[in-house]
Structures are given as structure tokens and as C-alpha cells.
């Protein structure tokens, strides 16, 4: 069955799968096997740039008029000091783009062994991500590696892509190379792609394209289950600098949540929520003036909504994807099943009052 944004979905899933294969190989080559100092950021940098080059190249062949709001830009790579980084990025992106065609892919997408990609073309592809966003028209938003800290730890990270039309997210794809396919067997096989088209549901697909000759048959439909407070738990950041975890603790207590939170990097949290593996995504600002980026929430927002959930800021207001590259002033993010969401918004209000009282004493 063909539906709205079907062609976009096929392309986006294929692009995210290629980028996931690339980032996994970067991890295996550079993080696992090389002797790196603990704070060496180079593998993630190489992975970010190369993955953005791959996804953007595919989008520019398939939807040449669509602008992209991408996290990265190529200025570091164009600098004289960026020569060795540039070479590594070009080699990785080329390796990925010239890999044999997979089921569902087409050669006209610029893929396969017969395609040449010059350094300038790949740098230009990265720079196509510099669109400023806005309220009208079509645009893609891309986070080539979301959860860079998790990527370096060998834990959760995600390749995230969304199509936004007139400020509404119509399609979201989240590739999670390290996420267990079945939440009931955490040590079982890993790697999944999550995809949602507005009005057509949220699905989990296998990560490897060879497994998905008939994607409709291989896709699992996702629904957020109903939760009682004693089965509920919070999904939150690992990094204390990204979210105010002490506030989450307060909210959990006010809600009567018993189970400890699940800490996980990246938009894999939205994927976990969509499949009922954790009941509330809660992200409150730490108070540093950081503005949330649209690529960090656009794919997750449509996934959650299509799984039957609700996403808003901490006041219950909708997230606004039409303000540019960011979501504007930061009031946090709350996502959950409908009934739970209402309770969380109330609990946040009480938690704020509690906090203000304590601070006033
Ligand atoms: N101060 C901050 N507050 C909230 N999010 C942040 C902050 N600094 C970076 N981020 C972003 O949070 C996301 C990861 O969130 P999580 O902790 O849930 O995995 C990343 O996209 C990261 O950006 P970046 O990739 O540039 O580091
Ligand atoms: Mg990110
Ligand atoms: Mg990123
Ligand atoms: Mg980053």
C-alpha cells in the first residue's frame, strides 16, 4: 500500500541504515581497536561528518529541492588544519556510498560501486545542512550521531532524520545500532530502525536492509501501553549536563513511581518509550540557557505521537519546530502515553512549587 510520504520514508530509512553501518564501522575501527585517550573526540567527529555526508548526498539526489537542518557543517574540514580529518571523512563516506545496492535502494540515489564522489561534493553535502529552518515549506532535519557520549562508551546512540513540512513533523526515522531488538532480552541481538509517518503509525524495523525485503511483513507496529504508577519508570539522560536529573527524582516521587529510572543516551529514549520500555521521557533544562535543537526531538516526537503518546514542553505546550534550528526558549520536554502525560504535567507543576518553597527557605 502506498501512502503519504511513502517515497520519502523509503529513502530516509535507507539513508539512516547506511549511516548506521558507517557509524558502527567507525566505532569498531577507531574506538574499539585504536588506542585513544579518554577525551579523544576524533572518532565521533569523523563519524558525525561522514554520516552527515552520506545522508545528505542521498537526500540531494532524491529530493534535490529540500533544504536540510543538519547538526554539522564542513568549515573545520575545509580549514588547512582539517586536512587529515577531511581525508578520513571522505574515505569513510565514499566507502559507505559505494557499497553495493541493498534491497529497496536505487542507483539513481547516487549509491553503488559505479558512483564517484569528489571531496568537494562531499563537503558541499555536509554544508547543505546549514539551512536555518523556519515556519513554512519542506525541510529535513538530521542528527548524524545523536548521543555522542553514548557512542564513545559503546552504549546507546542514534542516527536521526525527520521531514518537517510547514513546521509539522511528518516523518521520523531513528536508527539505533546498539539497542536490543527485543526489550525483553537485553543481551539478545542489537540494532533496530524506528520509523513513523504521521497518520500511519510507528514501527520498528530490522537494522540490516537484507532482512527487510518485505518491510511491511518485517515491521512491528508500536503502541505505548497503559501504565500503572507501580510499573512506570522514567527515561532520562545519562549526562547530568543535559538534563536536571534531581528534578526528575522529585517528579517521580510525586507521581508515586517506584521503579528506578532508565538512563540512556540519545533519541533511543523515544524509541524505548514508543515500544513501552519505560513510560515517561522527561528532560528539564539545567538552567544554562541551552536551547534544544530541532534535530534532537523532531524524529522522536512523531514516533511518540504515532505510538499513541503525547509530547509537549514541561508546561504542556506543543514543541514548536517552526522557530528555526532550535525549539526556542527551553521549557523542557515531556513525552508519555496520554493518561500518564497529563499526570506528569501536574506533577511537574507541584515539583516546581516544592522546589521554589525549599529554595525560599
Ligand atoms: N546543556 C545541554 N542541555 C541539553 N542538551 C544538551 C546540552 N548540551 C548538549 N546537549 C545535547 O543533548 C543531546 C544528547 O542528549 P541525551 O543526554 O539525552 O543523550 C545531544 O544532542 C547533545 O548535543 P551534542 O550532540 O552536541 O553533544
Ligand atoms: Mg543530538
Ligand atoms: Mg549529534
Ligand atoms: Mg554534537
TrEMBL record:
Keywords carried by this UniProt record: Hydrolase, Magnesium, Metal-binding
Family, similarity comment: Belongs to the inositol monophosphatase superfamily.
Reaction it catalyzes: adenosine 3',5'-bisphosphate + H2O = AMP + phosphate; adenosine 2',5'-bisphosphate + H2O = AMP + phosphate; 3'-phosphoadenylyl sulfate + H2O = adenosine 5'-phosphosulfate + phosphate
Enzyme Commission number, as recorded: 3.1.3.7
Keyword Hydrolase: yes
GO biological process: sulfate assimilation
Protein name per its UniProtKB record: 3'(2'),5'-bisphosphate nucleotidase
Amino acid at each position: 500500500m502506498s501512502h503519504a510520504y511513502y517515497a520519502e520514508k523509503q529513502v530516509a530509512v535507507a539513508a539512516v541504515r547506511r549511516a548506521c553501518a558507517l557509524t558502527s564501522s567507525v566505532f569498531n575501527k577507531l574506538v574499539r581497536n585504536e588506542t585513544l585517550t579518554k577525551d579523544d573526540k576524533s572518532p565521533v567527529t569523523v563519524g558525525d561528518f561522514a554520516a552527515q555526508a552520506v545522508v545528505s548526498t542521498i537526500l540531494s539526489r532524491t529530493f534535490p529541492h529540500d533544504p536540510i537542518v543538519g547538526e554539522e557543517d564542513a568549515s573545520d574540514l575545509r580549514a588547512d588544519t582539517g586536512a587529515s580529518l577531511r581525508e578520513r571523512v571522505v574515505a569513510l563516506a565514499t566507502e559507505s556510498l559505494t557499497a553495493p545496492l541493498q534491497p529497496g535502494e536505487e542507483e539513481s540515489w547516487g549509491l553503488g560501486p559505479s558512483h564517484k564522489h569528489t571531496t568537494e561534493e562531499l563537503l558541499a553535502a555536509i554544508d547543505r545542512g546549514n539551512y536555518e529552518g523556519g515556519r513554512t515549506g519542506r525541510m529535513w532535519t538530521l542528527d548524524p550521531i545523536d548521543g555522542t557520549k553514548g557512542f564513545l562508551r559503546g552504549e546507546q546512540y542514534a542516527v536521526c532524520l525527520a521531514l518537517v513540512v510547514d513546521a509539522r513533523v511528518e516523518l521520523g526515522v531513528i536508527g539505533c545500532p546498539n539497542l536490543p531488538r527485543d526489550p525483553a532480552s537485553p543481551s539478545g541481538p542489537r540494532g533496530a530502525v524506528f520509523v513513523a509517518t504521521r497518520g500511519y503509525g510507528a514501527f520498528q524495523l530490522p537494522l540490516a536492509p537484507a532482512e527487510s525485503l518485505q518491510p511491511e511483513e518485517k515491521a512491528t507496529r508500536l503502541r505505548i501501553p497503559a501504565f500503572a504508577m507501580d510499573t512506570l519508570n522514567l527515561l532520562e539522560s545519562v549526562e547530568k549536563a543535559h538534563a536536571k536529573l534531581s528534578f526528575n527524582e522529585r517528579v517521580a516521587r510525586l507521581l508515586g513511581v517506584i521503579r528506578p529510572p532508565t538512563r540512556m543516551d540519545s533519541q533511543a529514549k523515544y524509541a524505548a518509550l514508543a515500544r513501552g520500555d519505560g513510560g515517561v521521557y522527561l528532560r528539564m533544562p539545567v538552567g544554562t540557557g541551552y536551547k534544544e535543537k530541532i534535530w534532537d526531538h523532531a524524529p522522536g516526537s512523531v514516533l511518540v505521537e504515532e505510538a499513541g503518546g503525547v509530547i509537549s514542553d514541561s508546561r504542556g505546550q506543543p514543541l514548536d519546530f517552526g522557530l528555526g534550528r532550535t525549539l526556542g526558549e527551553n521549557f523542557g520536554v515531556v513525552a508519555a502515553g496520554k493518561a500518564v502525560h497529563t499526570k506528569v504535567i501536574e506533577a511537574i507543576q507541584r515539583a516546581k512549587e516544592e522546589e521554589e518553597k525549599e529554595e525560599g527557605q
